[in-house]
Write a structure and sequence with these properties.
Layout (H helix, E strand, L loop, with lengths): L7 E8 L27 H20 L7 H9 L14 H13 L13 H15 L17 H7 L2 H13 L4 H7 L13 H18 L5 H5 L2 H15 L5 H8 L23 H4 L5 E8 L5 E7 L2 E3 L9 E2 H13 L3 H6 L7
Antiparallel strand pairs: 1-2, 2-3, 3-4, 3-5
Length: 351
Amino acid sequence: MIDRLRGRSNVALFSRHGTRYPRNDPEPGGEDFRADQGREMELDALIQQMPILRDAVIQNHLSGRGELCAEDLQNLRDWTIDIPPELEEKLAPSGKEEMHDIGQRYTAPITRSEFTTASRAEKSCHHYAKGVLGNKEEDTIVYPIPIENDPLIQKFIEGPEVAATVSTVSKRLGFCCRYDKALYYGQLSPWCASLSNSDLLVLEYIDDLLYYYKDGYGYDINWMQACNPVVDVATYFNSIVLGSPYCAQLLARWGFYKDVMAPTASSFAFMSGRQWSTSRMQNFGVNMVSVLFRCELNAYKVQLYVNERLTHIPGCATDTCLFSEFAAIVQPIIETCDLDAICENPPAYVH
């Protein structure tokens, strides 16, 4: 919850959509786990292939070739999945619930909302609004028309850590854990029992590498182009004071989760305590809230919440930042926020 300072406050929220159903977007080599490069499992794999794998696991155990305990094996026997193809990439019930719950926890009034063209983004916005407004939507909310294989990553995917994990995961068939757990939140997933903590850490590192060089600090162009949301927040706050996902990119634009050492294909063993972690910053429903407070003596202050936790803004003296400090931090971002110029510049590779 937002810590309430004395006086009035204005809030700007930036959030990823809630949990969605998987996509059915086959890629070349998609059947090879190591060639998938962190992409979500295809819809047909969940609907068609997983029941076949489930039956194969059970048959292997009946033949004396298996490593799951009796309880995990029974959970696997009981596992079923029913996702109609028309639900591809649509917002799942668990996603509706999590966005509604976030809205209930952020009870600040809503005057305007924006979302991308994706149905899951629009539905997430509506369910968030229902959470804020108590399961009803008001005419005062404006819903505008929505706007429209890295070698380094492949090196790690083809490396010994992933090879060992693929061997282990293939042996115990834990392919379905991620989506099964997200779609049916709060329920025990028999597929997750197939994964050890070490397996999960290696799989997470694949995503960490992917998003670090796709959306994060790996290339300057990634985080520089996320300047518009920062400009929007600064403009909104300035209009009040003066009287008038891209989640990973935006977090990088603010300077969050930046490690001293960049993750590489060969640094997995040394990065266990890294800040850049997709488990924290790229999950469904990840959100960032900027709050402008008007305190005693008409002093304005700013707070920033990432996933509902008060987060220190780099460059501010304290977690509650004086508006003058905040303005000085965002001014260079505003002055250099020229997407045409940014995208024409070649990216600077980070070794």
